[in-house]
Amino acid sequence: MASMRDIKRRRDSIQSTEQITKAMKLVSTVKLQKSKSKAEASKPYFNLMYQTISSILGKSENLDHKYLRPGTSTKKAVVAITSNRGLAGGYNNNIVKLINSELPAGDTMVYAIGRKGRDGLQRKGYEIKADYSEVINEPLYRDAADLTLELLDGFARGEIGEIYLAYTSFKNTVTHIPKLIKLLPVEIEAGGQAEGKAHALMTYEPEEEEVLDSIVPKYMSSLIYGALLEAVASENGARMTAMDSATSNAEEMIEALSLQYNRARQGAITQELTEIVAGANAIS
Amino acid sequence: MAEMFKLQIVTPERVFYEGDASMVELSTTEGDIGVYANHIPMTAIVAPGILKIHEGAEVKKAALHAGFIEVLPQEVTIMAEVIEWPDEIDIKRADEARIRAERRLKDNSAENDVLRAKLALRRALTRLSARQ
């Protein structure tokens, strides 16, 4: 049986860990509120963008555009959005696993946003093409637009054939779903959204080709920007849940150790008493 | 009284404007346009310029820098990447940006720089005229 001192030391150590996880939970709760409202504020733009682009593509059939068909290269690019800090449960690992199961390491280039995902994918043998880990601390629309330009540049030069985006979508505070979506070539399921407005024929000013040239990058930027904001919210949500269960686990352990400690203390007192009584008996 | 249509202006960060309007004026890459209700369906790319929203007799102005516009008979949607109300514009900064851009245009160096300076100048001028 462990000595009283050992048990006490162990309990104190768990107690101080519990304090840390408790504080982290509070911090991520506050951050979650902030990032959640930010993600929600960007939703209308994203939804409208999706509607617009699907109505454009729905109305003008038989469009043949460079952004609508795969590039010549077999290489794939994936934008992997994770976090710079750990202690968020399976948050980062889920993205790494998802990418690993869908895209083979050999012909995939990674544009990493978030150090944890970058390191994880590097270990699995992925080529890290670029690293934008600073962005996740404070995502700006400009960052998404810059990244889009770089991706499209690679697409135009024929280095990339397909572009994917991997991020954790934010359903609600406790549900976050890792998602992998295809950015390029643009794929929009037919019908659906476009139907409401579909009967009118759209005029393009300038030509369709040029309009798509300029809208598709904006569409991609908005997807990436929306994904960044959702990922930040998911990260904080995941950390909050992880820290919450860590705190309750610590509480459980402290309870069990306290019981053990009291038993050990009682045992020690009983033993001491028996010794004294036995000693007294021996003298008399 | 002109017929009203629904106008919605959204940016990546927020819904910038939502309401009824009788006409909007803005610049596109093909030239300046004014849109009334029952316009034919059209999609156009926005060029930097002043956006004017007519709500009956009242006119609101904003500096619109980038984005695109989708026009439907009863509904106009502007997807603006960058847009500002006049009172959000820092006039001193815009003026400084104008001076800097003009200076850079004067000593004509590499091709790329000139293009950037021209765009910067256009943005600065748009901001300044939105304030007036």
Question: What's the SSE blueprint?
Answer:
The complex is a heterodimer of chains A (284) and B (132).
Chain A: H1 4-59, E1 76-81, H2 91-102, E2 108-113, H3 115-123, E3 127-131, H4 141-157, E4 162-170, E5 176-184, E6 203-205, H5 208-283
Chain B: E1 5-10, E2 15-21, E3 23-28, E4 31-35, E5 42-45, E6 49-55, E7 58-72, E8 75-84, H1 91-106, H2 111-131
Parallel strand pairs in B: 1-8
Antiparallel strand pairs in B: 1-2, 3-4, 3-6, 5-7, 6-7, 7-8
What does this structure look like?
The complex is a heterodimer of chains A (284) and B (132). Chain A is an alpha/beta fold and 284 residues long. Chain A has a single domain (42-241), classed as Pyruvate Kinase, Chain: A, domain 1, CATH 3.40.1380. Chain A contains 5 helices and 6 strands; from the N terminus they run αβαβαβαβββα. Chain A has helices spanning 4-59, 91-102, 115-123, 141-157, 208-283, and strands at 76-81, 108-113, 127-131, 162-170, 176-184, 203-205. In chain A, β2 (108-113), α3 (115-123) and β3 (127-131) form a beta-alpha-beta unit. In chain A, α1 (4-59) packs antiparallel against α5. Residues 191-199 of chain A have low confidence and may be disordered. Chain B is an alpha+beta fold and 132 residues long. Chain B has 2 domains: 5-86, F0F1 ATP synthase delta/epsilon subunit, N-terminal (ATP Synthase, domain 1, Sandwich); 90-131, Up-down Bundle (Single alpha-helices involved in coiled-coils or other helix-helix interfaces), CATH 1.20.5. The model of chain B has no long low-confidence stretch (mean pLDDT 85).
